C-alpha cells in the first residue's frame, strides 16, 4: 500500500513547460468556460495574454485538429465534440473515481448531504464528482467539471492548507493579482481556514446563499491533492452545522484515503 504522504506538488508547480506551442494551445482551450462558449480571436488574446497573430495561428490549428469549431457568421470559435470525449474518457478511465464515487453515493444517501470530490487547476478547483442528495434542495446545480474559486470555497481553502508553504504562497500570489480589491479580508479568511484544517481536519465556508460546506484535503503519495466536501442547504448557524458534519467528513476521508492508497 502507498504511504500517506503529501505529494511533492511544489516541484511540479515550478516545472517549466517543455513545448511552448502546446502550452499556448492548451491555454486557448482553457479560455472557454461556462458563460463563454463562443470566443473570437480578440477575446482569446485578452484571456490568454497571447498576441493576436499567435492566437490566429493556434485557433486555425485547433480547428484543423477538431478541438474547436469555427462559427463563420460570428467570426468566433467554440469547443468541439472531441473535447467532451476526452473528458468522458478521463472520468470512465479514472481508477480513483471508480472506487471513490460509490463510497460518495452511499455517504450522501445515508447522511442526506451533498458530497463532492475536487482537484485544483491553477487558481480554481474542478469537481471530479458531485453527488447531490436532493438537487431541488440546493440552489446550485453542481456537475463534474464545474469550476469554483479556490479563495472563496471550503474546497479551495482546504487545498491551500495541504500545500507546502512555497506553493501555497505562489497560488495565493496568483489569486491576489486577480482579486486585488478585498484581498485583505479574503486572505484573513483563508488563514483562519488553514488553522481550522490544522486543528480539526476540515474548514467551512458559505460562499453561496444558504449553502454551508465543509472540506478536507486527501493527500496520498503518487496522486494529486484531492479535496472532499460535504454541503447542505440551511439557514442555521454555519459553525454549528460544520461541527455536526465534521466527524462524518473526517470518517469519509479515512475511507477514501485508504481506497486510493490501495490502488
Task: Explain what you see.
With 263 residues, the chain is an alpha+beta fold. 51% of the residues lie in helices and 19% in strands. It has 10 helices and 8 strands. The strands form 2 sheets. Strands 5-4-3-8-7-6 form a 6-stranded antiparallel β-sheet. Residues 1-14 and 137-141 have low confidence and may be disordered.
Q: Figure out the total of helices.
A: 10
Distance between the termini: 8 Å
Percent helix: 40-55%
Order of helical and strand elements: HHHHEEHHEEEHHHEEEH
Rg for CA atoms:
19 Å
For the biggest β-sheet, the strand order reads 5-4-3-8-7-6
Shape: globular
Mean pLDDT figure? 89
Properties at a glance:
globular, alpha+beta, single chain, 263 residues, disordered N terminus, 6-stranded antiparallel sheet
Give a short synopsis of this structure.
This protein is of the alpha+beta class and 263 residues long. It is built from ten helices and eight strands.
Please render the helix and strand layout as text.
Layout: H1 9-14, H2 20-30, H3 41-48, H4 52-64, E1 68-71, E2 76-79, H5 81-93, H6 95-111, E3 114-121, E4 124-131, E5 147-149, H7 154-162, H8 165-179, H9 183-200, E6 203-208, E7 211-218, E8 226-233, H10 238-261
Antiparallel strand pairs: 1-2, 3-4, 3-8, 4-5, 6-7, 7-8
Amino acid at each position: 500500500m502507498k504511504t500517506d504522504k503529501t505529494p511533492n506538488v511544489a516541484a511540479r508547480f515550478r516545472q517549466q513547460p517543455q513545448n511552448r506551442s502546446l502550452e499556448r494551445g492548451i491555454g486557448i482551450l482553457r479560455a472557454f468556460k461556462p458563460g463563454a462558449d463562443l470566443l473570437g480571436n480578440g477575446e482569446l488574446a485578452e484571456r490568454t495574454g497571447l498576441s493576436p497573430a499567435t492566437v490566429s495561428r493556434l485557433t486555425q490549428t485547433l480547428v484543423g485538429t477538431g478541438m474547436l469549431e469555427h462559427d463563420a457568421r460570428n467570426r468566433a470559435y467554440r469547443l468541439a465534440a472531441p473535447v467532451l470525449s476526452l473528458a468522458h474518457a478521463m472520468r470512465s478511465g479514472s481508477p480513483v473515481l471508480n472506487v471513490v464515487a460509490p463510497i460518495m453515493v452511499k455517504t450522501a444517501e445515508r447522511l442526506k448531504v451533498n458530497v463532492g470530490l475536487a482537484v485544483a487547476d491553477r487558481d480554481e478547483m474542478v469537481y471530479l464528482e458531485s453527488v447531490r442528495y436532493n438537487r431541488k434542495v440546493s440552489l446550485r446545480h453542481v456537475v463534474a467539471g464545474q469550476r469554483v474559486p479556490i479563495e472563496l470555497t471550503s474546497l479551495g481553502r482546504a487545498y491551500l492548507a495541504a500545500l507546502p508553504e512555497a506553493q501555497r504562497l505562489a497560488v495565493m500570489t496568483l489569486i491576489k493579482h486577480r482579486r486585488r480589491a478585498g484581498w485583505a479580508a479574503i486572505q484573513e479568511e483563508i488563514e483562519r481556514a488553514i488553522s481550522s484544517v490544522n486543528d480539526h481536519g476540515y474548514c467551512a465556508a458559505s460562499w453561496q446563499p444558504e449553502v454551508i460546506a465543509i472540506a478536507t484535503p486527501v493527500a496520498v503519495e503518487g496522486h494529486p491533492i484531492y479535496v472532499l466536501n460535504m454541503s447542505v442547504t440551511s439557514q442555521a448557524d454555519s459553525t454549528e452545522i460544520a461541527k455536526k458534519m465534521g466527524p462524518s467528513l473526517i470518517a469519509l476521508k479515512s475511507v477514501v484515503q485508504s481506497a486510493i492508497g490501495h490502488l
